């Protein structure tokens, strides 16, 4: 593609050099730039891309997009724009030929439940032969492709490339998690959503957004970005039981589909029954009523199911099709996932790393009536500090015994994170062990018949970040190894 085509949608653009230059790619990270690429200089939290122009040129960048005056090198084309972040979303979209206009794109936002809900939507659509791609916390996948995710919502350069490749692979639906960071940083500016889904909003990420209000506002961007188009209707799927939904309904002209347990919801669950082997409920919708039976456990998963069902109703799926698809749902890696080696107690690995999710997962485990409920939990470093004592209080209140331990300490002192969590506690039914492996092992060694151990915080993660080092670590693996060491054998 020629540079002039790439910058065609931009306003107030000033080019020094040849607009006929052929461009081979576009990125904002000098470390991944290749010959003939456009390098876009964006300012980040720690660094400024304008400082990396020499490295980008060294790696072969031929076009540099800037928002400030920079020293110019001969033979290089410079594109000056008012905002590189805003320009980038338009250029990247154009470079990949507006892939999201060729996909039916469903975005899911909310503090908890995004991964679960996107996976459920994917399952509902693929079960009925619609080729579907998913982008989220665990991985990026579509028929014939799978890659581990680096971020929940990739930066626009990667995101639009994935969408482009999905279109090339004849994918019909794109289902993605849209984090508040991504919305705030404009990572999805170039995306044309058909449907936007809101799960819930509770405390997290205050390190980044500072206040709950700012956090809630960031999520509203998905709904204000949705707009409406009578030729191609748009849908906002909102949780009727979350107070933030009213604000989101107010900023979109898309058609509303509300879901929840309360009477005003259009898509509603009643007669919920939760057991250790699954959950059932009566599903009431504007197109009829049916009974849903699922292996997923917990009231929060009823919400996730309602959100996913609401998102596919505009796609023409009947309730019979929805019901049939949900019966085959297996659950999502690291979300209430059990480790079973034949031991007489349950070991549950769950990605709960926020106050609300921890409360939900412990309440769900309690509903299964364990003899004792044991919790292993920590909080991530370099993330929202204010949630630490709150999560500790929840664990202390809801579990019979708690092992406080490290999550991903990152560059913080693990012992100091534990102190943030437990410093104010007066209860005695807990212990703090910095080493997560030792904490999991002790919890398992101390468990008795009928107990449930919930190992919270890391779910599917197969690593631990201590300092800046990322090493292999897997809660399920550690738990399984300990069970084997204790003599449990799955086949016996
Ligand atoms: C706050 C945030 O989202 N930061 C992301 C952002 O980093 P940044 O803009 O601060 O980048 P920076 O390091 O200051 O660098 C500035 C610029 O210089 C460039 N640079 C830098 C160094 C270099 O050698 N060459 C170079 O060109 C960078 O590419 C960048 O364009 O852009 C980087 C890639 O371009 C991301 O890796 C980085 O994510 C960090 C690692 C991160 O952890 N983000 C988390 C908080 C995040 O986004 N999480 C959300 C939410 C998850 C949830 O809901 O739970 C997610 O969507 O994953
Ligand atoms: N609808 C929900 N409401 C509250 N808690 C939930 C809900 N769904 C899942 N959870 C809890 O939150 C944890 C994370 O769920 P999930 O991975 O689906 O959320 P997420 O929004 O994708 O999280 P992240 O922002 O980290 O990507 C689960 O392990 C479970 O404990
Ligand atoms: N996407 C979330 C994941 C947190 C997972 C938890 N294990 C932690 O490391 O805090 C974040 O980056 O805040
Ligand atoms: Mg997720």
Automatic annotation (TrEMBL):
Reaction catalysed by this enzyme: UDP-N-acetyl-alpha-D-muramoyl-L-alanyl-D-glutamate + meso-2,6-diaminopimelate + ATP = UDP-N-acetyl-alpha-D-muramoyl-L-alanyl-gamma-D-glutamyl-meso-2,6-diaminopimelate + ADP + phosphate + H(+)
Entry PTM: Carboxylation is probably crucial for Mg(2+) binding and, consequently, for the gamma-phosphate positioning of ATP.
Residue stretches making up the Mur ligase C-terminal domain: 334-459
Cofactor(s), names only, from the UniProt record: Mg(2+)
Positions where N6-carboxylysine occurs in the chain: 219
Family, per entry: Belongs to the MurCDEF family. MurE subfamily.
Protein name (record): UDP-N-acetylmuramoyl-L-alanyl-D-glutamate--2,6-diaminopimelate ligase
Species this protein is from: Paenibacillus septentrionalis
Gene designation per UniProt: murE
